[in-house]
Specification:
The protein has one helix and 72 strands. It has about 850 residues and is mainly β. The protein has eight domains: about 270 residues, no CATH class; about 80 residues, Immunoglobulin-like (Sandwich); about 80 residues, Immunoglobulin-like (Sandwich), CATH 2.60.40.10; about 70 residues, Immunoglobulin-like, CATH 2.60.40.10; about 70 residues, Sandwich (Immunoglobulin-like); about 70 residues, Immunoglobulin-like (Sandwich), CATH 2.60.40.10; about 70 residues, Immunoglobulins (Immunoglobulin-like), CATH 2.60.40; about 90 residues, Sandwich (Immunoglobulin-like), CATH 2.60.40. Strands 5-7-2-1-17-16-13 form a seven-stranded antiparallel beta sheet, with no helix packed on it. Strand 40 and strand 41 form a beta hairpin. The chain starts with a helix and ends with a strand.
Length: about 850
């Protein structure tokens, strides 16, 4: 029974796990309700947001954790059921929005009371979810699904004495906002504070979530919490890019939205009492930006013409089809208009530096009229840049501003060191940061100058456990009394040990000349980050060199020479026969017996040796001349050689592969290879090839049997060769051509001609044609009846053309006028069926159209009877 209950619980948990995830945002606030029995009482409200169309479920119950704000110590966990769930839907997006998206949130409310003793550090109330929505555009794509943490802070009495009696700021901005990609927008994250504390707003980093199974909401982990991994061009202070700002006094987010996608935006509101920040509350939302358009005057908050160009490109970022008119105006600092245009897209080149006002008006005096004003900073010659010193994990990395400006001076720096911790930022000109993780970091610097110019530069740096250190070699050899320069590569301070026989031990390239073999170790110190490597220097007093034994090869062959030696450099002669004269084991090409000499060096020490390579000619093989044969005939090969042994390949079409004059019977053109072997010292065979070309089979054709009438000209037409001969020559105009003509004066039951067809090699084949001669005019004979009963007699009705050059068509129709048979071939007949289906007995109509041998048309029709 217990096993069944546990199984049911597991099944229910799996069903819940499959749906309780993909949260799109959250926030928390609380109200101080008084003190009883020394305990501070709070009424807490938390909200979790979910897209209405996600087909997911909000957690119920949800688990909250309470921790000491200063130490992170765990106080308690609380399981809270959902108090109620609301649906927030945007019903009227406005007449000036084209293709508005559906904006809808399911909001889960969780309400509970908690009593806590006053604390100097205060408390943080936490709820965590495992999964946010997928595909968040301003995060690193490789992270995939990522969780969320939502918090509320209760101040301690160590900050201000009245801290524990605080009621938090509560966000009350409107979440029903349509944001269109690349369009201007505003989004309120305003809050109210019942204690009338001063409120200050800013963007901040979103937190990752817990690690519970599936999508369940488990009791949260203790703080501190890590930041989500922001992608390039985004960060905790710029979750929607550089064109979107937040008003620190009102919580209003304004600017030009980035491209279409989902963006996580987190706003913190600081509660300031008597000039002291006592608590920080956070609201975290995944905001969906869609491809809608707003009929608005949307231009960047500023135009930075601070690089090299003084030309401004003007275009409304809103592409709404509801925009019917556009007016641009550029105004200098004296209020004088320097440029005016009604073009939707235009540009202007400033003649002087300065700050100019850019004004855009759309649909003046019409529906959806709007205007916008921006500033153009025209001070070319501004370029942000920086240098880096120190790339070691958990060691100081120093950043040095290297920005230059032709006007004013650089006066502010916004650094993001790309560590994803939320604290990896600085506003110092040359800050120091200690990286908490290794890998490639995308460092961003946004610099400004006193003229208002602002620009961004990005650089990738690799944070490593040890500074990169490499050696030109790790094992080498020197000969007394030579010196050697060691070579280390890296950035930092070098020191070598031991200092035995060494000069410049504190450089990357010390010089050594030891008398015995020794290991030298190099240490690289990059701001306290240490790496080490070593090199062995082996020492000898002479060069060891032993060349290979003399050898014999086939004339002209390549052979590899080799030596046993400890030399570092080699030189072979004669160099013109050596493929790589500086190699220890080079390949050489030897056409005549040659003595090769090798010199081996270790510094100033040298040794020499020799190798004699004797050449022997290849065995001579002569396969004979190429030949050509007729199809399906034979050829006798005529080879010669002085070798003691030989063989032919391929063998299947040869009468004997072990004689010099075998008979070849190839079906197609074949190359026969004769391999000859002798015992004069060359172990390889000599080769020669003879090709037997086989002409293709002659396809002799004399034409189809035909019928003519007396005194009618007959044109014969043979094919398949280069020359022809007809026998007998009776009545033929020329029996030695392919297309003789014939005229007959008497009738004949059948005169047979044979044509001999020759190809270019005088190979011959033959074909036959039978000519019937009728004493009549050109006619197509059609029987008047037939009996298709498969008895072998009169089963097929065929047209018989006499004196006809071609039949254009012969057609048969049934009594309903349906075509049952058609042909254009002489004596091609009908078997009484259509598509294999037997046709009924009865009368059918036939028609024929043809052309006789004189080119005259022939048309005839008649009837026939099909008898069953």
């Amino acid at each position: 029974m217990k096993k069944s209950i546990i199984g049911c619980l597991l099944l229910l948990m799996q069903l819940f796990t499959a749906r309780a995830d993909h949260i799109t945002g959250g926030e928390m606030n609380y109200i101080f309700t008084g003190i009883s029995n020394g305990m501070c009482n709070y009424q807490v409200t938390a909200k979790l947001f979910m897209d209405c169309y996600s087909n997911r479920r909000l957690p119920d119950p949800a688990y909250f954790g309470i921790f000491n704000k200063g130490t992170g110590a765990h106080i308690k966990d609380i399981s809270i059921g959902m108090a109620h769930q609301d649906k927030l839907t945007l019903s009227n997006p406005g007449p000036c929005i084209t293709n508005p998206p559906s904006v809808c949130y399911d909001i889960g409310f969780y309400e509970f009371n908690v009593s806590l003793p006053p604390s100097a550090e205060g408390y943080v109330i936490v709820i965590q979810v495992v999964y946010r929505v997928q595909g968040i555009s301003n995060l690193v794509p490789a992270y995939g699904n990522i969780g969320a943490t939502y918090t509320g802070e209760i101040p301690g009495n160590g900050v201000v004495p009245s801290g524990p009696e605080n009621s938090s700021a509560a966000f009350n901005g409107d979440d029903m906002v349509v944001i269109c990609a690349n369009n201007s927008f505003s989004y309120s994250f305003a809050a109210v504070d019942n204690d009338n504390d001063q409120l200050r707003y800013s963007f901040t980093n979103a937190y990752v979530g817990g690690s519970g199974g599936g999508g369940l909401n488990f009791p949260p982990a203790s703080p501190p919490y890590s930041s989500v991994p922001y992608g390039s061009n985004y960060g905790p202070g710029a979750p929607l890019g550089g064109n979107v700002k937040i008003n620190p006094n009102t919580g209003m987010i304004t600017g030009v939205a980035p491209g279409e996608g989902i963006y996580v935006v987190t706003v913190q509101v600081e509660e300031i009492r008597n000039g002291v920040v006592i608590a920080t509350q956070r609201k975290d939302l995944q905001i969906r930006i869609t491809a809608c358009t707003i009929a608005s005057a949307t231009i960047p908050p500023d135009y930075m013409l601070c690089k090299n160009s003084q030309t401004i490109a003007l275009a409304n970022l809103s592409t709404s089809p509801l925009i019917t008119s556009t007016t641009w105006e550029l105004i200098d600092n004296k209020g004088i208009t320097v440029f005016y245009s009604n073009d939707a897209v235009t540009n202007y080149t400033f003649t002087d530096t300065g700050v100019y006002t850019v004004k855009l008006v759309i649909n003046r005096g019409q529906q959806c009229s709007d205007s916008s004003v921006s500033q153009a900073y025209v001070y070319p010659g501004f370029k942000p840049d920086f240098n880096v010193n120190g790339i070691c994990f958990k060691k100081p990395t120093r950043f040095f501003d290297a920005s230059v400006t032709a006007y004013g001076k650089v006066d502010s720096w916004d650094w993001n060191f790309g560590d994803g911790t939320g604290s990896d930022v600085s506003s110092q000109p040359s800050p120091v940061y200690i990286y908490q993780s290794m890998g490639v970091k995308n460092v961003r610097l946004i610099a400004t100058n006193t003229k208002g110019c602002r620009d961004t530069t990005l650089k990738d740096i690799s944070i490593v456990e040890k500074p990169p250190l490499s050696l030109a070699f790790r094992d080498t050899l020197i000969c007394i009394p030579d010196a050697l320069q060691l070579q280390a590569i890296g950035n930092g301070v070098f020191s070598w040990s031991p200092a035995t026989a060494m000069l410049n031990a504190n450089t990357a390239t010390p010089t050594v000349n030891p008398l015995t073999t020794i290991f030298y170790t190099v240490q690289l110190d990059d701001n306290g980050c240490i790496n080490r490597d070593s090199v062995q220097v082996r020492v000898v007093d002479h060069v060891t060199l032993l060349a290979m034994n003399d050898t014999t090869i086939c004339q002209g062959d390549t052979v590899r020479l080799h030596v046993s030696s400890d030399g570092l450099k080699y030189n072979w002669t004669p160099a013109n026969q050596v493929l790589n004269a500086a190699a220890a084991n080079p390949d050489v090409v030897t056409r005549a017996s040659t003595k090769y000499e090798v010199t081996a060096n270790i510094g100033s020490c040298m040794a020499k040796d020799q190798v004699l390579v004797t050449t022997v000619p290849y065995p001579v093989a002569d396969a004979g001349p190429d030949t050509t044969i007729c199809f399906n005939t034979k050829a006798q090969l005529l080879a010669s050689t002085e070798a003691i042994r030989f063989v032919w390949l391929p063998s299947p079409s040869l009468s004997n592969i072990s004689i010099l004059n075998p008979v070849a019977s190839p079906k197609t053109s074949t190359a026969y290879v004769l391999s000859a072997y002798d015992n004069k010292g060359c172990p390889k065979p000599g080769y020669d090839t003879v090709v037997v070309n086989v002409l293709p089979q002659i396809k002799a054709f004399a034409g189809r049997d035909t019928s003519v009438v007396i005194n009618q000209l007959l044109q014969l037409q043979a094919s398949g060769g280069k020359a022809y001969r007809w026998v007998p020559a009776t009545n033929l105009s020329n029996p030695a051509i392919a297309n003789p003509t014939a005229v007959y004066t008497t009738s004949s039951a059948g005169l047979t001609y044979k044509v001999l067809v020759y190809n270019e090699a005088n190979c011959v084949d033959s074909a036959y044609i039978k000519v019937k001669v009728f004493q009549t005019v050109p006619t197509v004979f059609v029987p008047n009846a037939f009996t298709p009963n498969s008895d072998g007699r009169n089963d097929m009705l065929r047209p018989i053309a006499v004196g006809i050059a071609r039949i254009d068509y012969f057609e048969i129709f049934n009594r309903w006028g349906q075509l049952v048979f058609r042909t254009s071939s002489n004596e091609h007949g009908w078997d009484g069926t259509i598509g294999g289906k037997i046709q009924p007995a009865g009368t059918y109509v036939w028609m024929v159209k043809a052309t006789d041998y004189l080119g005259a048309p022939y048309v005839q029709r008649g009837t026939l009877v099909l008898i069953r």
